[in-house]
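Continuing the batch. This is chain 6 of the set; chains 1 through 5 are on the previous pages. Same settings as before, nothing changed between runs. Recording input and output for traceability.
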Amino acid sequence: MKKIHSLSIIVVSIWVFSACNPTSDDTFNTELGNVFVSSNTQASVSVFDFSDLENVQRVDFVTSTNDAEGIYYDSGKDVLYQVDREHNRLNAFAGLSNNAPGSGMLPSAISVSNLTNGKGITSDGNIAVVADSGAQNRFYVYDISGRAISLRNAFMVDFPIWDVELSGSTLYVSESGSDSLAIFNTFLSNETNGTLSPDVKISIEGIETMRGLHYSVEDDVMLITDVADISADSADGGIHIIENFNAKVSVAVQEERAIPVSDQIRILGENTELQNPGDVAFDKMNNRIIVSERTNNGGLVLVFAYPQLEGNQISVNAFPLFSVQNPGSSGIFIDSEN
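Output for chain 6:
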């Protein structure tokens, strides 16, 4: 494990300075990976290519905020969106690949500064939904492009929120500080500002403090991170994987309104390096799970093999396939198109 990590850092360092090609008009065409990571301690966006773990590639860009959370990249339009907690807004960076590695970027578009404690972001490419958790908990819905961000709606909810995941018109929401997952079945049909109530709220057994979400529509798999005891100085966090998710939600609604541990696959234990895993992504092509770990070693990005359980096993204390330092690691997004 250490051998891979050490080798990868060397390769990453070389690649950062060689992975862009100046064009005839002196602009750049930077080769980007498909995993995008924010930081809430430094002004940077990191882009990784984990397809070959013996030769991990990384590009870093300097941004305009030292405190960012949710992140989304539209590969078709080459626009990056980032929740800027320092300035309480949503930023857009158009033409991301036209920037040289290590260069500074200013936003090409910004929203009004209406956020108070911005967290997760989700998007269908035309609108973005941002979770804002503070004295009042809100979803802000924006019309987005690389050149303009305009507020469409603001909806209040009566519980603290952290991450959001849009699938069609359905919005999945993690309730901060609890084991509860809220589901809004026709979220995008709401057009009038006001207070919303979830259509379904279920408990995910075994979770103590829910954080990041990732839902794979094609596989009907939900991934959820749990930071457990936030103050604990140990690897007590975990990843909860729920296969056949919709069927299990239907059963939960009819019965105990909870998905039991026996209906989950979990990655947890000292080997995992998971202390406060803030966000998660599923790399379907390589059958891997990628996690943004906020606390351990100041911030890490971790790559795990998708667990293969044996017998009555319901959890694995797995070592990461790859671990790389990323100070302040917060929001994570994987571009499944690339």
